[in-house]
Structure formats: structure tokens, C-alpha cells
Write a structure and sequence with these properties.
The protein is mainly alpha-helical. The chain folds into four domains: 136 residues, Rossmann fold; 151 residues, 3-Layer(aba) Sandwich (Rossmann fold); 49 residues, Helicase, Ruva Protein, domain 3 (Orthogonal Bundle), CATH 1.10.8; 88 residues, Orthogonal Bundle (Arc Repressor Mutant, subunit A), CATH 1.10.10. The chain is 48% helix and 11% strand. The chain is built from 18 helices and twelve strands. Strands 1-2-3 form a three-stranded parallel beta sheet. Helix 1 links the parallel strand 1 and strand 2. The longest helix is centred in the last third of the chain and has 20 residues. It starts with 5 loop residues before the first strand and ends with a helix.
Length: 456
């Protein structure tokens, strides 16, 4: 019978969900969903001073926005502290852990001494055989084997062997009674029946330590996969967080597409839907090299995903922002036509709203340089003639506007290129955007006359 795969994403609630954490969650989620497995969430909230409810909510909201659902109840590590303490005591009683009375000052002195001697700064096992009495203030350390080696198979890196003499006698229970990460994670992963631990390679050095704890407790370790880190993450608070990307107008499917590519690829394909990722992603194909943050790439991907959206969905996304700005629109049909004109020309939702703003504004702000180039006295004379001409015409479609323009050009013996940009600048405040006649149809005769009058 094939083993049922159970994975977990286990963030510390000390901040927002960032790109690195989101990618770890995504690789776990894809691996579970592809294999009919289970994807669990565990909040590692034992750092009481730094853990906040706000951060927990932000992390969960980020996962929901990225369309990563999870299975079962969310596990709070802090609820398991008594079990962690109980097992620590059992290890002491069985001689597999010991009390350590070394003070922080003494430990710092030992660390400095080891560095000065060119040695690895790890605990020198001063208290290992002292049998420190319970009444003396102490922490509890795991009695790691000194001889032999620890070998494990990493799904991405192959077989890894570490001499046991390099593995520290790590603290498993602090003097304040709080269990440490490397100890708690072993117990919780065992209790949750985790079969695969997929995490960043900054945890690679923790794995041998955790394996020795598994062995001491007589438990089978999970399989491990250590992901390469992401280079170029910003140190600015809040930057590179999923909330930040969401607020700036990125689509969740584009962010998922972007972060999955920070370490994994399939042939020469760049743009992936979630459905395609579920079909093509393979954990063993994740590379060993670091992914590099590239916002230009994210903007490009976001633009691609915006263009893939049905216009109805795009309207659904921009409509709340339109209402928030106090902009009125005559109908959903009209709004869909407006969206169609800007959808191929934007890379974020923020940009989309900005590009369509001229359709709603009562007054257009025109850059001084554009005004000097396209709204000179000579150009205004042509615009004046066009204003008089169009004021006596009626239109309801692009083809009718084209016909009106052709009549005007023939009457004035002008070419379209002589008047197109001045009209565009007068109507929208920019030289870029949708087709001139499409834009004019959506603005309507009243707004066209109003805006031409504003610049004349």
C-alpha cells in the first residue's frame, strides 16, 4: 500500500507572509495536491514575545489569497508545550538528555574561546556527565551521540552525511521551561504524521540534529527536501510580503506563477495557470541554485495574466476601486468596453485603474511638455475647427466616428496624423492608450465637447 503523503507549512507568526515562505507553502501544497496527500498548517508560536494574532491572520489571509487551501484544523505549537516538556523529562530520565547549569555569560565565553582557537563554536559538553540536581537553575540539553555519522537522503541534494562529533548537544528545553525549535518541531511533525518536510535550505544544518532526536525517541524520521533560498529579498519592512504585492495590484495567479519559477522550471514555459502547475510541477525538479527576485519579470507575468482574464472577471476586480474613487459609470456594458481598451496595456491592477481614469475624470490634467508640443496655437486652431464640426454631428459607434473624422479631414484638407495626437492629448491627457475612435465612442459627444472646450 502506498504511503499517504502528509506535508505541512509551519510559519512563525512574527510578521507577514513573504515570498520565501509563500514559495515553501506553494511547493508543499503542489506536492500534496498532486499526490492526493494532505496539506497542513502549523503555527510555530512559541516565541511569545514576537508572535502576534495579527501576523497569524496576515499569513492565513495571504495563503487564501494565493488560493492555497489546507486540510484539517490549524495546529498552534504553543498548545503542545506540555507534551514537549513531558518528553524532554522522559529523555532526561532515560539518560538521553541532561541538565545544563551553564549561564548565558559562561556560554558566551566558551563561544568566544572556540572561535579564537579556530574551532566550531558549539557547546563543550561541560555538564554532560555532571548529573546537575533539579533545584539548580538549568536548561535541558539533548545528549547527542559523539561517535559515528548521521546520514539522510535529501530529495533534492541526494545523500548527506554528517560526523556526529559536529552535532551539538542542543538545548531542547530552556531554563524558562520553553521548548526550543529543533525539539518541538520533531514532536509536532511526528504527532501530525508528517511524511515529507519541505523547507528552506537554511534548515539543512538542523536536520541531523532533528534526526538524532527522532532516533532517540524511536520514531521514523520524515523524508526531507531543502529548497534553495531566494536572493535579493528586500530588507525594507513589509516589502516582498504577499500583502504588499496584493495592495500594489498584482493578481494572485501571477504571484503564484512568479514564485514557483523561483527555483523550478518546465522546458521553456514561463506562464503557468494553477491547473498547469498541478500537472507539470515535480518536487524533484526543483533546482539547487538560488532563485533571484526580479520585479520586472513579475510585472511582465502579471501583465500576461491580466490579458488572460475574461473581461467580466477584470471588471469584477476593478469595480471596487472605481466605486472607491467615486467614479460613476452608465452601465456594466459600458464599463466592460472601457476595460477592454486598457486590459492589453497594463501590468498591474493599479496601472489599469490609472489608465482608465480619464474616462471618468471631469477635468483632465495635461503635462506642460505635452501641451507645448500638441496644444500649440496652431494645433488649437485645428481643434477649434474640429470642435465646431463634431458639435453638429451625432454618433453611437466607432464606425460612425471614423466616418465623421474622414468628412472633417476632407473638408479641411488635413491628414489624420496632423490632428490625432492633439485630440488624444485633449481628451485623455496622454499620447498613449486605446484606439482614438474607441476612446471617443466611450467618452461620448458631451465629454468630447467639454474637454475640447477646456483646452481651447
Amino acid at each position: 500500500m502506498t504511503e499517504k503523503i502528509i506535508v505541512r507549512f509551519a510559519p512563525s507568526p512574527t510578521g507577514y507572509l513573504h515570498l520565501g515562505g509563500a514559495r515553501t507553502a506553494l511547493y508543499n501544497w503542489l506536492f500534496a495536491r498532486q499526490n492526493g496527500g494532505t496539506f497542513r498548517i502549523r503555527i510555530e508560536d512559541t516565541d511569545i514575545k514576537r508572535s502576534t494574532e495579527e501576523s497569524i491572520n496576515a499569513i492565513l489571509d495571504g495563503l487564501k489569497w494565493l488560493q492555497m487551501d489546507w486540510d484539517g484544523e490549524i495546529v498552534l505549537q504553543s498548545k503542545n508545550i506540555e507534551r514537549h516538556r513531558k518528553i524532554a523529562m522522559e529523555l532526561v530520565e532515560s539518560g538521553l538528555a541532561y541538565r545544563c547549569a551553564c549561564t548565558p555569560e559562561q556560554l558566551e565565553e566558551k563561544r568566544k574561546k572556540a572561535i579564537a582557537e579556530g574551532l566550531q563554536p558549539k557547546y563543550d559538553r561541560t555538564c554532560r556527565e555532571k548529573n546537575i540536581p533539579q533545584h539548580i537553575p538549568h536548561a535541558i540539553r539533548f545528549k547527542s551521540p559523539i561517535e559515528g555519522t548521521t546520514t539522510f537522503h535529501d530529495i533534492l541534494r541526494g545523500e548527506i552525511t554528517v560526523p556526529n562529533e559536529e552535532i551539538d548537544d542542543l538545548i531542547i528545553l530552556r531554563s524558562d521551561g520553553i521548548p526550543t525549535y529543533n525539539f518541538s518541531v520533531v514532536i509536532d511533525d511526528h504527532d501530525m504524521q508528517i511524511t515529507h518536510v519541505i523547507r528552506g535550505d537554511d534548515h539543512l544544518s538542523n536536520t541531523p540534529k532533528q534526526i538524532k532526536i527522532y532516533e532517540a525517541l524511536g520514531w521514523k524520521p520524515p523524508r526531507f527536501a531543502h529548497l534553495p533560498l531566494i536572493a535579493g529579498l528586500s530588507k525594507r519592512k513589509g516589502s516582498d510580503s504577499i500583502q504588499d504585492y496584493r495592495a500594489r495590484g498584482f493578481l494572485p495567479q501571477a504571484v503564484v506563477n512568479y514564485i514557483v519559477r523561483l527555483g523550478w522550471g518546465f522546458e521553456n514555459q514561463e506562464v503557468f495557470t494553477l491547473k498547469e502547475l498541478l500537472e507539470k510541477f515535480r518536487l524533484e525538479d526543483v533546482g539547487k541554485s538560488q532563485g533571484h527576485v526580479n520585479e520586472e519579470k513579475l510585472l511582465w507575468l502579471n501583465g500576461q495574466h491580466i490579458r488572460m482574464l475574461p473581461v467580466e472577471k477584470m471588471v469584477e476586480i476593478v469595480k471596487p476601486r472605481i466605486i472607491e474613487n467615486g467614479w460613476e459609470f452608465p452601465s456594466i456594458d459600458w464599463l466592460q468596453k472601457v476595460v477592454k481598451t486598457i486590459q492589453p496595456r497594463c501590468t498591474t491592477i493599479d496601472e489599469a485603474v490609472k489608465k482608465m481614469s480619464f474616462y471618468f475624470d471631469t477635468k483632465i490634467e495635461i503635462d506642460k511638455n505635452l501641451a507645448e508640443k500638441y496644444l500649440s496655437q496652431e494645433k488649437k486652431q485645428i481643434l477649434m475647427q474640429f470642435l465646431k464640426f463634431i458639435s453638429s454631428e451625432n454618433f453611437t459607434s466607432v464606425s460612425e466616428i471614423e466616418a465623421i473624422m474622414q468628412k472633417f479631414l476632407e473638408k479641411e484638407n488635413k491628414k489624420l496624423k496632423e490632428i490625432a495626437q492633439p485630440i488624444r492629448v485633449a481628451l485623455s491627457g496622454t499620447t498613449e492608450g486605446p484606439g482614438l475612435f474607441e476612446m471617443m465612442e466611450l467618452l461620448g459627444k458631451e465629454k468630447i465637447i467639454q474637454r475640447l472646450n477646456q483646452v481651447l
